[in-house]
C-alpha cells in the first residue's frame, strides 16, 4: 500500500528531516540525475529549468550531478534577474557555479535537447503560473521532448491536483520524499505522466500525519470476503435496487447484474417504469418487481435510472426513512440537492449512508459550480461526508473515497470509463460487496478499485481501445475480484 500526503504534511516531513541534518536537496538532485542517467545517453544535451524556490534548488543540484557525470547541460533560470536564491537553493546555485556551470534566462527553441528537467515550481506553488512562466511552459510543450518534473509538474497545485492555468506536461514525475496527494486526482493526472518517488532516505514518522492510502492494488480488506464452508445465500446479504424509470431500465439492470457478479446473496430490482420487463434474460437471477412490491434488503440502492418524477421522490423519501443501509446515486442525489427536507432526513439517519456523486452531482449537493468541486476535490468530498454523515465517493479521474475521518484515493481505471452506465455498474458492485458484511468504507474502496482495475485489464488485453462498456466491466469483475482474493505471493 502506498500513501499520498497533503502539502501541510509534506512540509512537516521536510522540516523534521532537515532538523535531523539530512541533506535533502543534495539527495533530491542526485536522485533526479540518476533517474535521467538511467534513461539517457551522455551524448544528449539536457535542458534544465530552475525556478525561484527550492524546486529550482533541486534542479540546480540535478544539473551539477549530470554535468559532472559528463552530460551536456543547459540551465535556464528565468527568475534569477528578479530574485536571488536563498537558503538551500542559494547553496545549490553557488555549487552549480563552482562546478563551472552557467545559466541563461532563456533557451533555444530549435535546440536538440534529449530531455527537459522541470524544476520551476514544486509544492510551493499556490496560484496559477503567470507571465514569463506561462510562455516558458508553452514553449516547452512545443519542444516536444521528454520531460522529467521534479516533485510536481510546474503549474499543478500539489495539494489539490487542480491545474488552474498553464502547466508542464511531464513524461515522468519524480516526487521527492513522498508524493503529494494532488498528483493522484483530477486535472493533474493529465500532467504527471509516469509517477516515481525518491524517498531521499527518509521514513516519515507517521505520528501527527494524515497519510492517504492510494489504491493501486487490491485493498487487503478484500480478503474479508472469503467464505465459510458452512454458509448459505443469506450469509451474503441482499440488495434492493430502486430505479429503472421509463427509458432507463438498463441502468437498474446494470446495477443489479454488477451486484450479482461480485457475489451478493440476493438481488431484487424495484423498477419504476410503466411497462417494466418481468425478467432479465441475461441475468435471470435478478428478481424484478415494481417499487411497491419489493422485498426489503440489507442494502437499498436508490438512483440507477430513477428519474425525478413524483414516484421517484416518494421512493427516495421512503428509503431515507427506512432503517436499512442506503446507497444514493444519480437522480437520487439530484433530488436530494433540490429538496431540503430530504437532506435533513438523510442527516438524521441512524443506518449507514453512502453517496456516489460525480463532480456535477457533488456540485449540486454543495450548491457550487462543478469547477469549484474539481479545484478542491479533497475538501469537497470531505465536506459532503461531514454534511451528510455519510461515506462519499467523489467519482472521476482519481476517485476519492471519504468518511468523516479519512480519505482514500483510487489509482486504477481511466478515461475509458467515461461512458453512460459506468456509474450504475459501480453502484451495483459497491452494494453487492457491502451486502456481504463489509463496512461501507471498505466496500467503497474495494468497489472503486475493482471498477478501475477491470478497465485497466480490459485495455491491457486490447491496447488502444478508447472505451470499455459497463457490461464488459461487470463481466470482468468476476475474474478480477477472484484474483484479488488470492493469497499474497510469499
Ligand atoms: N528545503 C529542501 O531542502 C527541500 C526542498 N525540496 C523541494 O522544494 C520544493 C518546495 O520549495 P519551495 O517551498 O521553495 O517552493 P517552490 O520551489 O515550489 O516555489 C514556490 C516559490 O515561488 C513562489 N510562487 C508561488 N507561486 C508563484 C507564481 N505563480 N509565480 C511566481 N512565483 C510563485 C512562492 O512564493 C514560493 O516561494 C519541493 O517541491 C521540492 O522540489 C525537496 O527537494 C525536499 C528538500
Ligand atoms: N476520466 C476518467 N478516469 C477515471 N475514471 C473515470 C473517468 N471518467 C469516468 N470514470 C469513472 O466511471 C464512472 C462514471 O460514473 P457516472 O459519471 O456516474 O456515470 P453514469 O453515466 O453511469 O451515471 C465513475 O466511477 C467514474 O469515476
Ligand atoms: K517542478
From TrEMBL:
Ranges of residues in domain YjeF N-terminal: 10-208
Binding site for AMP: 395-399, 423
Cofactor note: Binds 1 potassium ion per subunit.
Cofactor: Mg(2+); K(+)
Keywords attached to this entry: ATP-binding, Isomerase, Lyase, Metal-binding, Multifunctional enzyme, NAD, NADP, Nucleotide-binding, Potassium
One Pfam family linked to the record: YjeF_N
Catalytic activity entry: (6R)-NADPHX = (6S)-NADPHX; (6R)-NADHX = (6S)-NADHX; (6S)-NADHX + ADP = AMP + phosphate + NADH + H(+); (6S)-NADPHX + ADP = AMP + phosphate + NADPH + H(+)
Residues annotated for (6S)-NADPHX binding in this entry: 54-58, 122-128, 133, 151, 251, 305, 358, 424
Domain of life: Bacteria
Record-listed E.C. numbers: 4.2.1.136, 5.1.99.6
Domain YjeF C-terminal, chain residue ranges per copy: 216-488
InterPro entries to which the protein is assigned, alphabetical: CARKD, Nnr, Ribokinase-like, YjeF_N_dom, YjeF_N_dom_sf
Residues binding K(+): 55, 118, 154
Family per record: In the N-terminal section; belongs to the NnrE/AIBP family.
Subunit text: Homotetramer.
Cited function: Catalyzes the epimerization of the S- and R-forms of NAD(P)HX, a damaged form of NAD(P)H that is a result of enzymatic or heat-dependent hydration. This is a prerequisite for the S-specific NAD(P)H-hydrate dehydratase to allow the repair of both epimers of NAD(P)HX.
Record's protein name: Bifunctional NAD(P)H-hydrate repair enzyme
Source species taxonomy: Bacteria, Pseudomonadati, Pseudomonadota, Betaproteobacteria, Neisseriales
Encoding gene per record: nnrE
